[in-house]
């Protein structure tokens, strides 16, 4: 069976992740059937992705809450006893424990975790491109079947993600720090906003918005993630609580305040650039345009004419005014070239920022 | 003097805020002179904005750290004894206290706080449009000279900002909650990242990036802001510390975890939309394009042809792939219209998200 290829996949769970996997696989030419405990959700998900009835799939994706894993495995293993299985849960130690109860599956179950998600869930929010360019973590046992692993790698590749192998313990420690800790912090900062006068809230700037964005996430999803990873998360929360205490005690001492803020800046600098790996360095070109149809198109036509590639773009409106500020992220040389060109033909271009 | 107009402004302090005010005023036709305790910074700032020597200004902007306010006022009041003064510091109770030492100034000093900034400081980061569409808070005393207030409102209007009057106490309480608390939280979460293995950091997603973005801020600026507002900030930090303790105690109880995360979502929902005032609701239209020059221009030409106004835009690249995902924020009706049109002419349009 070592040359088995992925042709048929069964996905159990039609939430954001399961349905997004389904969408991506169907676009990649794979036959997919979506299964859900709720018949209406199952029907909707199959309609959304173009799902079909699938007999004898090579791979079963378990995309439901980890708490239901044992029950679902028991049923699925009877239906497809020789199949490869993966889950996509956010905490892997818990999954390893649950799978231990099924020795027949030990060499054909590969715990995985795609590092992608959104603040909103459900099949309706699914995107075929959800995993494009993201990391997809595998925590395989040492004796995993080579063929099972190959099938999983093929699935990850079809979805445009990059496979990364970690031990389950390292995975759970890593996500506790880079995902679960910031989630708890964002939620608790946002909680402090309750009962704030409306006129104060209207002063909120981008800092508050960014710091609390993920506080909009679903509590049913997060209660399970936090609970499953509580062992790894607990010490991190205690450390944060201790540092808050240090800050409270430092309030009368500006130098101590500065050293805590500086430590934060040092930690922040360790986060790699947006595409993973090393940070890419862009130049930023601010342009003030009329806030009406046609202006952005005209700018991008000039970009195309100058063979300039726009890496990213931000738009800020000025309410009550008929202008908007757009900021293009470009390579240094493209920024210089485009800036000179746009100025020469009369656009309101501001100095390049690096 | 009640009909005095703003024609000449002296700005003391050539950092990000002072220089940005200078740039904006010069663009608005005002003669501006930048002053700095460092002669080289002063010279650079005047070169950047097109500053000129200004005699008998109507208004002096004090844009240096609040801790130096008394010393600078003493000097400036001798130079321009009949002038109107404002400061732009982030904490206003402290400013009121310092200005009380100058009774001659009491009716001509108006404490203000423009709600704008960037993670990076200095004259080189200044932007004439920094205040466009932002709130600019005034905390005037009851007996402020009407003419002084009119000059300040003219300055705010010239810079494209919206004036908002608050008491100094309300201002300091509001910014403690919506600005200084998130800053401390972001810095302390980012501090926890120190000594994290590089391969774990490479798994960082947008959640961690957003939650810690403002942790990149300057510690010299923030030590002064936090220290000046420590009275208002202290209780908020204690509340956050207490809620962290509640979360730590709740780790064995999924329902308690869920209620804390849900409270965060409720608090987050109180933040108004990006333009201030009530949140504007957009539809989001995802489109997969080839990642090469010309594609964005073509999309925006279609927008213009359909009379569709793009409110915001996000670009996500897929590294190692020749495609990019752009997501347009549009009104509901524009999204429907554009989606049908783009699909009909062959673009890879994904379902609208609300």
UniProtKB/TrEMBL annotation, chains A, B:
A Pfam family recorded for this sequence: PDH_C
Keyword Oxidoreductase attached: yes
Classification via CDD domains: ACT
GO MF terms, alphabetically ordered: NAD+ binding; prephenate dehydrogenase (NAD+) activity; prephenate dehydrogenase (NADP+) activity
Keyword Oxidoreductase (UniProt): yes
Keywords noted in UniProt: Amino-acid biosynthesis, Aromatic amino acid biosynthesis, Oxidoreductase
Superkingdom: Bacteria
Protein name, entry field: Prephenate/arogenate dehydrogenase domain-containing protein
GO terms of biological process kind: tyrosine biosynthetic process
The Prephenate/arogenate dehydrogenase domain, residue ranges: 7-282
Record family assignment: Belongs to the prephenate/arogenate dehydrogenase family.
InterPro entries reported in the protein's UniProt record: 6-PGluconate_DH-like_C_sf (IPR008927), ACT-like_dom_sf (IPR045865), NAD(P)-bd_dom_sf (IPR036291), PDH_C (IPR046825), PDH_N (IPR046826), Preph/Arog_dehydrog (IPR050812), Prephen_DH (IPR003099)
Pathway: Amino-acid biosynthesis
